[in-house]
Amino acid sequence: MAAKRESGSGGGSILQFAPFQSSVDEGFWHRLSSLKLNKLGIDESPIPITGFYAPCSHLQVSNHLSLLTESLPSDSDEQSSTAEISRGSRNKCTVPGTLYNSNTLESFYTIDKQSLLKQEAKKIWEDIHSGKAVEDSTVLSRFLVISFADLKKWSFHYWFAFPALVLDPPATVVDLKPASLWFSSQEAESVSAACSDWRNSSLTADVPYFLLTIAPNSRATIRHLKDWEACEGDGQKLLFGFYDPCHLQNHPGWPLRNFLALILTRWKLKSVLFLCYRENRGFTDLGLSLVGEALITVPQGWGDHQCVPNTVGWELNKGRKVPRCISLAKSMDPTRLAISAADLNLKLMRWRQLPSLNLDILSSRKCLLLGAGTLGCQVARMLMAWGVRKITLLDNGRVAMSNPLRQSLYTLDDCLNGGDFKAMAAVKSLERIFPAVAAEGVVMAIPMPGHPVPCQEEDSVLDDCRRLTDLILSHDVIFLLTDTRESRWLPTLLCANTNKITITAALGFDSFLVMRHGPGPFSITHDVKTEAVNGLSADMDNLGLNNRDGGQRLGCYFCNDVVAPTDSTANRTLDQQCTVTRPGLAPIASALAVELFVGVLHHPKGIYAGAEFANSIDSGSSEQPLGILPHQIRGSLSQFSQMTLVGHSSNSCTACCSTVRSDNSILFYFLNQVLNGVL
Questions:
Q1: 374 within some domain
Q2: What is the pLDDT of residue 540?
């Protein structure tokens, strides 16, 4: 609010100005949050921003200087570091500004505000003396903002400053009245028409400072400030006009302060007629606009270009010199808030510890989890924590009363009435935890060797084989998390055949195995179904022990077996049929399985990466931000130990060797038919 008028020298009153008021759109804070997380990190360098304001357009409400989404540059690397702003809008006069965003709340409060204000004032002062302010008058309204973004709570602390050069002694006003009373009726009509033309032209609509001349015949003309010499001394009335955001009848708006400094410095005028241009609902309103005469005394030292005048301009908050704070948490859509919060930790990793973390590759990968039990529940949650958003869970079991304590996605409600299918209950739980996840449940059994199939179920088993094949083909990563060896065999064979990233996690009572399978027989660029059409057996004959780069291929889960998988559940006691493990084992193995998967995605060689060991000369761990990429991790809770091993592919493996075709010709004929779409 403008201060009370005081009497000045010469009988005039000290000219008081109504301060600028700020307004920040929610979109600005969202853009700042994204920019901070994805591009700026801990960088506190000043950010160029753009503010917008327009002439007052209401009898009782002043216009604000607003920050919108487009006020900030995009966080895309392809975009410029400055915001791309379209010019020529009558309702959005652009004003250059600077944002200083602090990393901590403490630094926000302790920042040297007076020094920052002085820096911005110096820019205005230099623009006045260099002539830039005459060519581009928007620089006269430069502003700055200091801020702190609390991205956990979605609250934002901020403080605006609108630097104004102080005239000392202050300017006085001889006469200030509505423009409709200052102009004659003919002049008023011509001025209104000239202002309308200026405002309606895309070339001048957002030019906030101008010259208004009125000829003896009452004809009004509006010119750019650079045309001052053409207007001087030609016998016309000359007024210095500006877009005034203020609605008060007794005070001009804040933009006039630096405008008077420009007039005094550039043109040495000590008596200035000014027009506070205002509108009413988009049309020129000379009854609301003001005309006044300001008398200026040259301040001491004003002629020294190196001496920046005193500056004021920090915005008051309800009459107090304190910053503002806004919280968007309550106004945000819960799903959107959940997505932002879920990605926060991952994006913070890229600030210091892991700049090369590729969140796009994680969020775009489709993961198939075979098994939705103790391991499957943990792996699904870990994947979401790493930013994976596309998860399919396959299981044909139902949730039992014994499950919820060990399997983190289930509750007692899932056990009632015979129990829900695990795959479907897990999907519902994932969606409750994180609504943005794209989860799918598949209820089906995995065909297993050693388990006889009755004649009446042959068609169903063949359908399951075909469906499993399609699922593996449509996903990027396969996790083998079932609780029997034989249930892993067919998926292992299909994954090797389709060259998919495959991660196995298996549990004993107090020990675990986590491993990644080596690459399959085909190049990653081959089309699997086309290969099958040309003869799957021919492809399998080419399945050797070496990678495409000549290195020895890493083995699969079955490469160290000496016998084929059989029915491991027949003739077993209850404790042998159930997965009896120490409760802490599954979370450890699940976490390692997901970390291994993330390591494969970020390794330059991907699935073809060799086994790496700690402290190994050729491990390449110093070059990989996530560290080494092992082949197998075996751990023991009884000894609280863990070791990394490597097992190369075997030419006797029942799932991925070149001789498996001759030993299982009937099986491969069946798989050939499935891949060809015959069955």
A1: yes
A2: 42
For residues 36-43, give the mean pLDDT: 89
Question: What DSSP line would sit under 392-453, residue for residue?
Answer: EEE---B--TTSTTTSTT--GGGGSTT--BHHHHHHHHHHHH-TT-EEEEE--PPP-TTS--
What amino acid occupies position 256?
Answer: L
Q: Are residues 150 and 199 in the same domain?
A: no
- pLDDT tens-place string over residues 407-442: 999 999 999 999 999 999 999 999 999 988 999 999
578 is catalytic: yes
Question: Among the three residues 163, 183, 198, which one is the final residue of a domain in this structure?
Answer: 163
In a domain, 327, yes or no: no
CB atoms within 10 A of CB 314: 21
Section 7-35 average pLDDT: 83
Express each pLDDT in 310-369 by its tens digit. 999 999 999 999 999 999 887 767 777 777 777 888 888 888 788 888 888 999 999 999
Which of the following is catalytic: 578, 653, 656, 657?
578
DSSP state of 173: E
Q: Is residue 118 part of a domain?
A: yes
- CATH number, domain at 656? 3.40.50.720
CATH number at residue 94: 3.40.140.70
- With respect to residue 330, please indicate whether it lies within any of the assigned structural domains: no
Give the DSSP H/E element, type plus range, for residue 347. helix 334-349
By CB atoms closer than 10 A (0-12, 13-18, 19+), residue 36 is buried
